Amino acid sequence: MVKEHGILIDGKWIKSGSGETFESLNPANEKVIGKFQSCNNDDVNKAVNAAENVLDSWKDVPAPKRGEILLRAAQLLRKNKERLAKLMTREMGKVIAEARGDVQEAIDITEYMAGEGRRLFGHTTPSELRDKFCLGMRMPVGVFALITPWNFPIAIPSWKITPALICGNTMVFKPASDTPLCAIEFVKVLEKAGVPKGVINLVTGSGSKVGSALVKHKKIRGISFTGSREVGEFVTREAGLKKVGLELGGKNGIIIMDDADLKLATDGVIWGGYGTTGQRCTAASRIIVHEKIRSKFEKMLLNRTRKLRLGDGLKPKTDVGPLINNRAVEKTHEYTHIGLAEGAMMLCGGKPVKINGKGFFYEPTLFTNVAPDMRIAQEEIFGPYISMITVKNLDEAINVMNGITYGLSSAIYTNDIKNAFEAVERIEAGLTYVNSSTIGSEVHLPFGGIKGTGHAREAGWTGIEEFSDIKTVYFDYSGRLQKAQIDVVVGKKLKKHSE
Ligand code: NAD
User: Fold this and answer.
1) Is the pTM of this model over 0.70?
2) Which one of 147, 159, 160, 214 would you pick to mutate in the ligand 1 pocket, going by the greatest count of ligand atoms within 8 A of its CB?
3) Are 418 and 426 in contact (CB under 8 A)?
4) What is the topology classification, in CATH, of domain 252-434?
5) What is the pLDDT, as a whole number, of residue 493?
6) Which residues are designated catalytic?
């Protein structure tokens, strides 16, 4: 019997008025994980109204008290870490060690944001006038729509929900349709920790119906969206004057200089390119290698790539799990045809795989002789896929790195500090790693991209900025009308030059 799951509106788990459901599959064996509600406009309206109704009372709760709820949530997540990680591997496919990391990321950010309950710093600053006091203080934005992808099914929702809560917003959360169960389980933890009813509402269903209804909804004041650039552009067009944060795709590169530690670089490229089956927004899909060490590095990388074991992420020996669904297999395979047609050389991989006749697996694929303007070097593939580009020097490497429309993550392997600083200064990306891979962010630092990756900066102190507005406050205790920019003010005992 496949269980049917509800949606959460105003503290009640209910069925959608549509009467329709959809299924979530285990990508390793195609078994059905559960049935989920295909919401309609009426459900979206109810969810938004529920969030709006409790906005005033939630923002009235002192932020440190909101923080206590988050702290309880972090403790519950810790207690349930293994259960949630296993569920995540079943629903999304990533290998179990990475699924544990995903839940750990949620624990970390929930603790961090709990602490923010006792900070939520604003600024105080001097006034240009006497007997006047100025400050900037934080306010909640209002009702948020939180729309998330499937590749970090608990971590990404936690990066949005926990800062949104601590800042005093209420919200409607719409997770990706490939991982609704992870989202439901995460929200249940928050409910259990004491988030009051109506503060978080969860609706499920297609992006084109449910996501888009939220984006256009008049009562929604803020949208935090993580997903593809195409949908990000739609959100930008349709959101009107709402506060919008966008975390979109990437085409991230790693530069390997001739002075690099090649063993360390190989470890980083394998992790960056094939970790999470290449389905990270920060995945390293372009390896920009110095011509002097190209042949040696290529051999080392090929050797390691061939040894990677595909399989169910729950099996301890699996290195690379399945892709999320059959569409992703087809898309990845299409790029193999594109790369070959463009004249690149495939060193290994390039085939869809079934294990015991099932699953959405794809062989880890390595292309070399890739030109920087080929489509496999420009477009986000989101599969276990690496394209090697050879360059003559650092200047050319940085130009190749920057010659894309995205700007999320980047890395350089070098033992020359001059190379490292030049790369850090010139690379156009939201993240640059020196002697480490493109993946592996920490929750107390800002995360996000530039150019076609969008403009959001989630996590860390900037996570608070995403989910709050600033009110500027002036207290004038002079007892007279003082005019900024017009009155001339000097110290009480000082004289102006003209006097
Ligand atoms: P997607 O854009 O297809 O879907 C993301 C979410 O948007 C889903 O919940 C989906 O249902 C919803 N959606 C779809 N159409 C919509 C519409 N018209 N209006 C509103 N919502 C809509 O992306 P995906 O396939 O789930 O995720 C993969 C993409 O996410 C990749 O491009 C990846 O790089 C990106 N991503 C970016 C980051 C980052 O932080 N920059 C992190 C993870 C993933």
Assistant:
1) yes
2) 147
3) no
4) Aldehyde Dehydrogenase; Chain A, domain 2 (3.40.309)
5) 77
6) 247, 281
